[in-house]
Amino acid sequence: MPSWETMDHKCYENVFWGEDLSSVKGYEVLVQRNSDSKKILNDLEEYLKKRSRLELDYSKSLSGLARTFRQRDDMGVLEATMTLLKTELDSMANYHNKASISFQQHADNVKKFKEDQTNRRKLCEDNLNKIQNSKLSQLKITVQSEKLYVKKCSERDIAQAAFKETSINQVSVPKDIEKAKSRFSRATEDAEKADTQYKSAVMVLEDCRILWENEMISACQSIQAMDEERIKFMRQEIWDTTNIDSQLALDIDRSCESVREVLEKCDIVTDIQAFISKYKTGEIRPEPFSYKHYTKIQTMNDNDSDLFSPYSTIGEEQNTSDTSSTGTRTFFGFAKKKGAAL
Fold first, then answer.
1. Is the sign of the CA dihedral 324, 330, 335, 340 positive or negative?
2. Which residue ranges does the record assign to the F-BAR domain (predicted)?
3. Residue 180 and residue 174: Cα distance in Å, rounded?
């Protein structure tokens, strides 16, 4: 009996009995407890296995997402941030993969514990069930012996009364007296035999009851001990697996903090100026396109002067594909045959 038992804390061995010797309620409660314990462990194992698969799938998804990052031509802190973000995504994928492995290890632990308890509980049930069936069988025999004993004793009493009545009856003939005496003698022998059988059955039943009671106590103690082990084990397993989530959250937060620390250095003005410094094309804007008389344009083109228009070749560039064997197009769009003057 555990030392912690008090009026408010009872033990299994003291509370799963019944006043009726044929009662099996306590046994049925304990068997149901064993079944429920196995189901609870099954639920925990299934949860851990599913969590492991979810973490693994998420890890693969994060790795795939990290691979989609492409190097872009950006400037300043944002470029470094995007590079770091890809790196931290890979790290997060690794964290979730480790979590997946840990959840699977805990699932394996639960499975091993469950199988061990299932075997021990089954052995306990089988032993108790065997002795309990023996007790119930002997109880049935004893009840039948008791009924037979009562019947034979009643028949003996009736035969005895009949013999006395016949003996004192003056009209009774010796033959009738002898018959009554013979019936009384046989009834007495049957009653004594029934009495012996009944006493023997009661003794055997008492032996069965003692064996059953001892086995019931042992079963109650074993099942309570296994329940205590299961509760302690599950409490620790659930505690440890929630710590996996906590550690995962901390690891992910560290990765996020790394990105945030880089982003804190991001300055809009600095990044804009860095882009301008690297890719600027000039600060002088083009003059307006002014109208010129065609003779001036021809003169400018023929003399290749400093006043040469930067737009004079645009038409030629755009119409290169329109060139044919009969001639080419000028800036003005008129056809000019080979060897011919304008």
1. negative
2. 10-271
3. 10
Question: Identity (one letter) of the amino acid at 234?
Answer: M
Q: Is pTM, for the whole model, over 0.70? A: yes
User: Between 292 and 285, where is the model more confident?
Assistant: 285
8 Å CB contact between 72 and 79: yes
**Amino acid occupying residue 180:** A
Q: Does pLDDT of 2 surpass 80? A: no
Query: Please, is 134 exposed, middle or buried when counting C-beta atoms within 10 Å of its C-beta (0-12, 13-18, 19+)?
Result: middle
- Give per-residue burial for 72-97: e unless 16+ CB within 10 Å, then b: eeebbbeeebbebbbebbbbbbebbb
Element containing residue 67 per DSSP (H, E): helix 25-67
Give tens-digit pLDDT for 198-222.
999 999 999 999 999 999 999 999 9
Q: Which long-range contacts (CB under 8 A, 24 or more apart) does 264-270 make?
A: 265/77, 266/76, 266/77, 266/78, 266/81, 267/76, 267/77, 270/76, 270/77
